[in-house]
Amino acid sequence: MNKKFYKIALLASIMIGTVACGGEDKSDEGKSKTQKEVGPNDNDTTALDAEPEDLEEYADNDVQLPTALQVAQMMNKEGLDYTEGLAHDPDKADSYSTQLQKKLVFGVYSADLAYCVLNDKFTEAQSYMTVVRDLGSETGLAKIFDSEDLLKSFEENMSDREGLMDVLVDINWRTEEIFDTDPESKKQSMVHFAGAWIEGMYLGSQIVVENKNYELGTTLVEQMNILSSLIKGLKTIEQEGLDKLIVKLEDILNTYNSFESVKANAASENGTFTLPTLSADEVNKLAQKISDLRESIVNA
Questions:
Q1: Other CB atoms closer than 10 Å to residue 287's CB: what's the count?
Q2: How many whole angstroms separate alpha carbon 161 and alpha carbon 241?
Q3: Per the CB 3.0–4.6 Å rule, which of 79, 101, 132, 152 could disulfide with 2?
């Protein structure tokens, strides 16, 4: 697994209030679970230790995406070094007009912010913090990002990675306070998370392909276990244009499940869950699908 890849997923989820709000069972903190094949009709779709939930009752039960603690536990290797120009251009933040575009790009920029922080790109991080704040204020999170003490804390820690991570954690707590009193906002945050997930997968897959380090394809596979739950959550939200995004996400999921390595791995079940090892061609195909989806979002 790839340490920085998972930290980006962690921090991006923090920026949108840790969308996976399933409860943590501290007695099982050391456990992990992965699936061989995932699909929109599976009930147990998490790659981690959360119990499966019936997502048809989403209004009462949260979709099980990784909590910050669960993601952090999976970090055990370095990688995903910074590549100039790979993250989305913050200067394009003003080019998005619809609420759906703004929510998705908020997620994209949140992942880019984490990407910069974890690679000590502090000047770049400041630019992304600015656009994340502006888009957050335009998409229902104004109470968080209008706080002067939050921005001051970010500026005071501009050369301190751990300090900036603490600021992002602070944003998480403030977001949770909003969600505690506004369940609809919590539900809508699934769209923000979709943008962050897509950008995180884009960053990871592009670096895997560019460096031809296909061993890191395992990281992508583990993230695919999240996609099924994400699709289910998005289907509970009524927002114009969201159906097109869901179709594209389902296409990525179906493409992944059609891979020979995934089907062979599923057929060899022996009572334990293991991850399939994607071939170079499969990684490249998955990366292209992710790139096409990401481009359709940032160039909308």
A1: 21
A2: 37
A3: 79
Most confident option among 93-102, 117-126, 208-217, 230-239 = 93-102
Per-residue pLDDT tens over the stretch 228-279: 989 999 999 988 899 999 999 999 999 999 999 999 887 765 656 678 899 9
pLDDT in tens, 188-204: 788 988 998 898 889 88
The length of the chain is: 300
Q: Which of 67, 80, 78, 79 is nearest to 32 (CA)?
A: 67
Q: What local confidence, expressed as pLDDT, does residue 7 receive? A: 56
Residue pair 54/294 in contact by the 8 Å Cβ criterion: no
Map the chain to HEC letters. Answer: CCHHHHHHHHHHHHHCCCCCCCCCCHHHCCCCCCCCCCCCCCCCCCCCCCCCCCHHHCCCCCCCCCCHHHHHHCCCCCCCCCCCCCCCCHHHHHHCCCHHHHHHHHHHHHHHHHHHHHCCCHHHHHHHHHHHHHHHHHCCCHHHHCCHHHHHHHHHCCCCHHHHHHHHHHHHHHHHHHHHHCHHHHHHHHHHHHHHHHHHHHHHHHHHHHHCCHHHHHHHHHHHHHHHHHHHHHCCCCCCCHHHHHHHHHHHHHHHHHCHHHHHHHHCCCCCCCCCCCCHHHHHHHHHHHHHHHHHHHCC
Number of CB atoms found within 10 A of residue 173's CB: 12
User: Model confidence over 129-182: pLDDT tens digits?
Assistant: 999 989 988 988 777 777 777 778 888 888 888 888 788 777 777 777 777 787
- Looking at every residue in the chain, the average pLDDT score rounds to 75
Dig out the tokens for 60 from the structure. Answer: 């009462």
